Amino acid sequence: MAARDVRTELDSLILQLLADLEELEAKRAALNGRVEEGWLSLAQARYAMGVKSVGPLQYASRMEPQVCVCASEAPDGLQNLRVVRAGAQIPEEVGPREAALRRRKGPTKTPEPESTTAPQDPLNWFGILVPHSLRQAQASFRDGLQLAGDIATLQIRISWGQRICFPNFLQ
Amino acid sequence: MLESAELYFNVDHGYLEGLVRGCKASLLTQQDYLNLVQCETLEDLKIHLQTTDYGNFLNNQTNPLTVSKIDTEMRQKLCREFDYFRNHSLEPLSTFFTYMTCSYMIDNVILLMNGALQKKSVKEILVKCHPLGRFTEMEAVNIAETTSDLFNAVLVETPLAPFFQDCMSENTLDELNIELLRNKLYKSYLEAFYKFCKNHGDVTAEIMCPILEFEADRRAFIITLNSFGTELSKEDRETLYPTCGKLYPEGLRLLAQAEDFDQMKRVAEHYGVYKPLFDAVGGSGGKTLEDVFYEREVQMNVLAFNRQFHYGVFYAYVKLKEQEMRNIVWIAECISQRHRTKINSYIPIL
Description:
The complex is a heterodimer of chains A (about 170) and B (about 350). Chain A has three helices and two strands; from the N terminus they run αββαα. With about 170 residues, chain A is mainly α. Chain B is an all-alpha fold. Chain B has helices at about 5-25, 30-35, 40-50, 65-85, 95-115, 120-130, 145-155, 175-200, 200-225, 235-240, 250-255, 260-270, 275-280, 290-305, 310-335. In chain B, α9 packs antiparallel against α14. Chain A: Accessory component of the multisubunit proton-transporting vacuolar (V)-ATPase protein pump. Chain A: This is Vacuolar ATPase assembly protein VMA22.
């Protein structure tokens, strides 16, 4: 009886592994597609705006990240990686700073550096009136980011399955 | 007043007109484009370009070849030709050439100011500025904090000075204000250029005025299209529209109220010239509005060469050369990204 349980569990693990591999392939293909689309849209934006208007001159050498990778423990003990907006991570610190901002909105109009409660859209580095292709590029790259997080989680699960799970079961 | 262009034009400008027509004949043909489209790498592209009028223009570039380097070298070549024309020109053709360079000067000023916002070094940006828009005070542009500063301290001696009347303000130059400055400067420049051509009269006015009217209307449409979904208000938008086009005044007023592409299309349908352009957007080739406008611009510029004894041939040649550079850069990008589905979206000229 015990041997049959072990076999059924092994079967289900193999099926899970193959399903994960299939999902991984699909997500990789989707990520490649998104990234290619993004780069082509950037080329279209360069066609409309000029080659030097969409390039390394437009972004600073240091930038604040808008998204972060959030690692958490899933119930089966594996790491789960998610891509989240950077601002959403620090809710405690925004509170007291918001009150300070409200006080500053009084008659004094000295240009004080604003705290990053609203992160600046990188699209604005290229100007306010940007062509549609640049917005499309941004959307493609954002989708790609989400997929990247999912792919990383899947890869962790697959390599765990290959490394640890099977040798233990086959013993 | 007799039409006297045929009698006197060649005295001062005949040599240059002959020269520019020769340059125009060396633009890439459809066969050249077919060869370029079949290249597998940028090195192949460079070899194919050596057989055209471009010759060995990429020989000074180090490996690896990038699209940006190709673009820079093409611009340098155009600038050398243009400088030759300008150095041999007499008035009023010299003023005409100065007007042509103002648009590149505006672009360079904006590039420098945006670079200052991103804390880039001036040297880094100067290398990437358009060579046709070079002027001596360029390096000092990044010290200006407001538009009035920029005018009084830096640009008051340049040809851009007359275009600053509507743009003076004490607001600090952030992205929105820089964009507003760019469009207002360009609007003043276009209106001044239009007036210059109109006052010149003769065949120049007959050729250049429709071209500049189209440019004004094109800018109005593109500004409207790009402003959907941004923080630019409708009143601000209306102040950016150049008024020397066919759309002025009713069309511009309607355009200022438009809130999406369909409303813009309905405004364009009142004008016989623009209705077919808007109808061609989308379709099977996936053409954007910018593509359609570029095609129309190429048509008008090619037709400019059918008349003689006017300055429009110089303007048309530079614009056609720019379209050729855009085509080559597009083909190069498709090759370097190995994404060949849209490689045939260039606009053939000859």
